[in-house]
Amino acid sequence: MKILRLILFLAISLLNSVSAQNPIQLSIDRFAADPSMSSASITFKVVDLDQGNTVAEYQPFLTMPTASIAKLFSTATALELLGPDFRAQTRLYHDGTIDSLGVLHGNLWIRGGGDPSLGSKYFHEDAQQLVFLDEWIAAVKKAGIKGIDGAVYADASEFGYEGAPDGWSWSDMGNYYGAGPSGLTIYDNQLSFHFNVPSALGSVVKVKSMEPEVPGLVFHNYILSSSKSGDNAYLYGAPYSLDRFGSGTLPAGSSSFLVKGSLPDPEWQVAYEFDKALRAAGITISGDIQTARTNDLSASLKRYESMHMVHTHKGEKLLDIVSHTNMRSVNLFAEHMVNLIGYDKTGNGSTSSGLTVLEDYWKSKFNTNGMHVNDGSGLSRSNAWNADHFVQLLKCMHTSKYAAQFKSTLPVAGSSGTLRNICAGGAAKNRMQAKSGSMTRIKSYAGYIQSASGKNYCFALIVNNASCSNAALLSKMESVFNTIATY
Fold first, then answer.
1. CB under 8 Å to 229, separation ≥6 — which residues?
2. Number of CB atoms found within 10 A of residue 157's CB
3. Which one of 308, 363, 413, 422 counts the least CB within 10 Å of its CB?
4. Number of domains in the chain
5. Quick one: 184 and 328 in the same domain?
6. 4 in any annotated domain
């Protein structure tokens, strides 16, 4: 009899314990108990923004790589420290004298200010990408310069020449999404190849055209035609190297297949485009294109103290750049956010400088123990965050004076950006604003959900190494999001 009473007592206790748990906690517990998660790493947390209490969690302090939700840190920091109306500046100078014939005896300098919007496809149509050069040429002519007895110099030195952040892999560098930041960026630092793909399977594809023109670039082509559909080609190449490699396959019979890679040397490319446009406008130039990097010129503000200002070009507003960064997950823009905060606060626009500013700022707001940041986009697998880090960030931004602007940059589930197909038929549709992240064996989401009951939550869910397919993992994650949206 005593044994029966004990069993009954334990059963009732267990039942009361389960019923006491809220649906969100039950949902994440089911998620973690799924057989496909047996070898996975999971970190999860949900906080009620109105009450400030934790609603549900699962290993909230377990750190791991997160992929693109890392952009929440870079974009939030940029908004907080620079403001939504900040505009990066690119400045033109000359270092000589202009004679009575309009000949500049000296050099024309382009001083990079980390503007990622120069010639960007996100802000210009194809035919308008170089419209900013018309403005620059007009400024040169207004200064009375008709010829240059010297060279066009490009100087991106104040942002360093790291080329790519720490932890980026060879398989990423060379591809379009692995385009590194620069003090002088153009065309989103991308290089477009158009291939003619033979119908015969296993044939080497032919390069039809390449944009922009990069004199001296050598393309080692190992891309073959295949019966597989879609883009299965990969481009490789180190920063500043004019050697580019292509491998993989493209669908047989395609007359013009587009594959995008990274631009080898953005600093040089800006000088090349400006030099070419100046010559086309009738301005003679005696010297060859020069860059600060190839001339081993260190970053120095003193270099410009004795020069003559010709023009200041202001880039797009920071809020608009942040919107593209979060809505469309643009790696390059996220990296530039890091560079710009470093440049603004320390005068050093390198990635390492910007990350120090970022980490110090959030360290003053909440506990960042276990947080390791190596880039602004999340492409580095050396990064490490946990769900608590993101929830604390989101809580801070919820009460920020830029809260509305920040939230407006986030994709909406079932509606916009990278979340347009997420929870499209579920309760979280139009109730969830979040950033997504995805890399091989990594899937993550972090953002805000307003439930049907009117409660406001912030959450983060990060999963590494699940054994199921991406589609199956997404479906399981959607179940958690929909549960939050109904609680």
1. 251
2. 23
3. 363
4. 2
5. no
6. no
Q: Which residues of the chain have pLDDT under 50?
A: 1-2, 4-19
Give the largest Cα separation in the chain, rounded: 113
Structure tokens at 286: 């005696």
Q: What's the pLDDT at 13? A: 41
pLDDT digits (tens, 9 = 90+) for 261-287: 999 999 999 999 999 999 999 999 999
Residues 307 and 362 in one domain: no
pLDDT given at position 21: 79
- As a whole number of angstroms, the distance between CA 274 and CA 53 comes to 56
Question: Residue 261: which of 233, 228, 222 has the closest Cα?
Answer: 233
Instruction: Please tell me whether residues 444 and 402 are part of one structural domain.
Output: yes
Name which of 96, 93, 99, 91 is nearest 144 in CA terms.
99
Full residue range of the structural domain in which residue 324 is found: 22-84+318-486
Which residue from 251, 263, 290 is spatially nearest to 95, judged by alpha carbons? Answer: 290
CB of 145 closer than 8 Å to CB of 94: yes
Task: Give the pLDDT of residue 20.
Answer: 54
For residue 28 the two structure tokens come to 């994440």
Q: How far apart are CA 140 and CA 408, in angstroms?
A: 39
pTM of the model: 0.94
- The closest alpha carbon to 90, from 357, 316, 355, 325, belongs to 316
Instruction: Compute the Cα dihedral for 277, 279, 280, 282 and give only its sign.
Output: positive
Those residues with Cβ within 8 angstroms of residue 267's Cβ, 6 or more apart along the chain or in another chain: 112, 154, 155, 156, 182, 183, 184, 291, 292, 293
